[in-house]
């Protein structure tokens, strides 16, 4: 059985109550592998061949990160740039990711209303995530509805626990879908 690969990317995980809790909520799930890029590559020297091998084996991809400046943390961008090469992820050649589901699991520091044409950020979160969706589609992947948590700093411990349970259920469903009927 293939597995769900959670690519966890947070440069300050010790200070991140929410993302750390979400990661921990799924870390022990059978059929789910959590891959912490900052733990693996603190120097940003990414082993491209190893990363491509893991991506080939995975049946589904979850990319978990905070929204930083309307995008992702630097190491995730570096990972995409180096690992998702033409001939591996898209274009003529292997297309190793084609057909695999992609879930973006993102957190924001703002309330949901801030992501609105009249809100603080002036764009919806769907618009901000569009480059990730475009990447998934270019690679022939199946873009799934994102798992979004707003107000990452302000949520209570009880709500963090509930969000962790919801995240676990979402990944269990994704894992179970890989098994087929």
TrEMBL record:
It comes from the Bacteria. SUPFAM superfamilies: Flavoproteins. It holds the Pfam family Flavodoxin_2. Gene3D superfamilies: 3.40.50.360. GO terms for molecular function: electron transfer activity; FMN binding; NAD(P)H dehydrogenase (quinone) activity. Residues 4-171 form the Flavodoxin-like fold domain. InterPro entries: Flavodoxin_fold, Flavoprotein-like_sf, KefG/KefF. Keywords: Oxidoreductase. Transmembrane segments: none annotated. This is Glutathione-regulated potassium-efflux system ancillary protein KefG.
